[in-house]
Amino acid sequence: MAALSFPDRIVEVVAEPTSNAFLRQAARLSRRARLLELRLDSLGSVAAIVGVLERLARRPLRAPWIATCRPRVQGGGFEGSASAQLAVLALAARAGCSWVDVDGETLEQFPQRLRAALLPPVRRIVSHHDFKRTPPNLEALYRRLARLGADWVKIAVTARTQRDNVRLLAMPRRHRRVISVAIGNIGLPGRVLALGAGSALTYAAPDNGRATAPAQPAVGELRRIYRADKLDSRTRVYGLLGNPVAHSLSPAMHNAAFAQARLNAVYLPFEARTPRELLECLAPLRIAGLSVTHPHKRTILRHLDALDPLAETIGAVNTVVVRGGGRLYGCNTDYVGVLRTLQRHVSLEGARVLLIGAGGSARACAFALATAGAFISVTARRPVAARALARAVGGEAVPRSALRRRRFDAIVNCTPVGQTPHADASPLRADEISARVVFDLVYNPIETQLLRLARRRGCRTVPGWQMLVEQGAAQFEIWTGLRAPLAVMRRAVLNGLRSHGRTGL
Prior knowledge:
Elements: E1 10-14, H1 19-30, E2 36-39, H2 46-58, E3 65-68, H3 82-95, E4 99-103, H4 104-107, H5 112-118, E5 123-130, H6 138-146, E6 152-158, H7 162-174, E7 178-183, H8 188-197, E8 202-204, H9 219-225, E9 236-242, H10 250-260, E10 265-271, H11 275-279, H12 282-285, E11 287-292, E12 306-307, H13 309-314, E13 319-322, E14 328-331, H14 334-342, E15 352-356, H15 360-371, E16 375-379, H16 383-392, E17 396-397, E18 408-413, E19 435-440, H17 449-456, E20 460-462, H18 465-480, H19 486-503
Parallel strand pairs: 1-2, 1-8, 2-3, 3-4, 4-5, 5-6, 6-7, 9-10, 9-11, 12-14, 15-16, 15-18, 16-17, 18-19, 19-20
Antiparallel strand pairs: 11-13, 13-14
Helix pairs in contact: 1-2, 2-3, 7-8, 10-18, 10-19, 14-15, 14-18, 18-19
């Protein structure tokens, strides 16, 4: 029987619809991967699966592999009977697989004695997949699966809140030989932190390959950005609170900085509908600090224990420090980021600056620029909010209809309009853009539709990634007390933007 331990804790998943593509991918990955999962159900028919296994028996893969043939009811592609599913896994064992992953519902269809006879003589992962939710009683689910002859119990379920991540991470801390997998964008922190919590494995898509579960990260993302296989119980967790956050480059930037500084720390995207959904999980997730983005920069204020005076004046927070006893201290580094970025392009003393938007980012920009001597104009979808912000900084509210008749020294977009995946949108039309400099806080894509329109109008354009780096460097220094590695952070952001451009994310 195969050894109980795995040669690696990150599994790369092979799932291709044709035999030739499947075998090519498996052979390519096995040259560098230390452990593969072969999703035989992705081949569709039993005949195709048998053909692939016969070829693998003649020419074994270099890397050991886990055989999986998941039925449709468990999110797979196999349409055969439960008996056929177990027969496929028995063939895989004879072809050289070291482990099989079989779902619990399949095993429960057979009496215990017959079950033992049908299962192949290799180590077994007994699994449960739920692509809709995290079941309410994970302990009962674990016990049910463990009774089915499991060497490991795999629980792969969809996280709908950060509390689900907490519950999933508790399973490998309580039980040996558990594989914990959180599915979906909200579940990404749970997936990254799983190995540090004691999960036997986590799963990744091949680099430039297709994912087999919603928001399944690529292997390079898990290893190089998150360093998931290096995390442990002492890792300090930081992250981005917002909704949505899936396309943020802050994780790439901050994790590169942590790696450069040799800190046992990780930065994760925490998607949450309200701040409370994450804040109630701070202690179990071991969170030491947060970035805050749209739409929570103002709503988080009511949850803080103390505020930096500048953040209190602005009325918006983008950085949180978790102090002793779980006390939350809020501050604002957007202020620093916008000043450092825009001052390189415009003399702010006496400059006329138009802000688009009146939310948390716009408030930080307004107070920063007004303090530097600029006169602030505000236009926003909500005129009442625009007037309130303009009054707060001694500026003016400008209706959208008046923009074609006005000229400014600088225009700053403080809204998420134009952000990936809605990159074709712009907060202004071309005939509403009249300024020497146009600065877009949106950084993904690297050149937004607003900046393209502005460039065609002859304006100097300033991409949002520059501010992302500046405000992120200030956050890093607040959290760690160390000097931020600006060049490393800048390179991580630009590499991420180029990669997103290639993949169409």
